[in-house]
Amino acid sequence: VQLQASGGGLVQAGGSLRLSCAMSGPISRSYTLGWFRQAPGNGREFVAAIFRNTGTYYADSVKGRFAISRDNAKNTMYLQMNGLKPDDTAIYYCAADSSLILSSIQRDEQYDYWGPGTQVTVSS
Predict the structure, then answer these.
(1) Residue 95 and residue 5: Cα distance in Å, rounded?
(2) Do residues 6 and 117 make contact, with C-beta atoms less than 8 angstroms apart?
(3) Using alpha carbons only, what angle is made at residue 94 by residues 64 and 108, rounded to the nearest 5 degrees?
(4) Is the C-alpha dihedral spanning 66, 36, 59, 50 positive or negative?
(5) Coil, strand, or helix at residue 123?
(6) Three-state DSSP class for 109?
(7) Do 38 and 46 contact (CB within 8 A), yes or no?
(8) Parallel, antiparallel, or unpaired for β 118-123 and 90-97?
């Protein structure tokens, strides 16, 4: 399983970006897919997840502004980010795992597969 995130960049506060995560390998619809982010000096933080293609979950800090989705035909996961704030500045990572339970989807150490991150910078 390989993941590759892209789509980061520099945007002004209030703007939008869409991150993509291209996935290769045997990633079935039963996998949990997630986005995490890490700001300088901070640990990796949960952003959003699709749990086994049954539901989407978000951190409170991004709820109502971000949307996670998956295109099974393209084997790609997305994170649409609207209303961006300077606090959203971070390196964003996509992750996947085949055996998570719902109570674990916000725990980064539970994910087996990670892609290299993509930088998102929001200027004020």
Answers:
(1) 9
(2) no
(3) 90
(4) positive
(5) strand
(6) helix
(7) no
(8) antiparallel
Residue 116: Cβ-neighbour burial (10 angstroms; 0-12, 13-18, 19+): exposed
Beta strands in 42-87, from DSSP E residues, in sequence order: 45-51, 55-58, 66-71, 76-81
Sheet with 17-24: strands ordered across: 2-6, 17-24, 76-81, 66-71
Question: What share of the chain in percent tops pLDDT 90?
Answer: 93
Q: How far apart are alpha carbons 102 and 29 in whole angstroms?
A: 15
Chain segment 31-88, per-residue pLDDT in tens:
999 999 999 999 999 999 999 989 999 999 999 999 999 999 999 999 999 999 999 9
**Cα end-to-end distance, the chain, whole Å:** 37
The two structure tokens encoding residue 110? 């539970």
Which H or E run includes 36?
Answer: strand 32-38
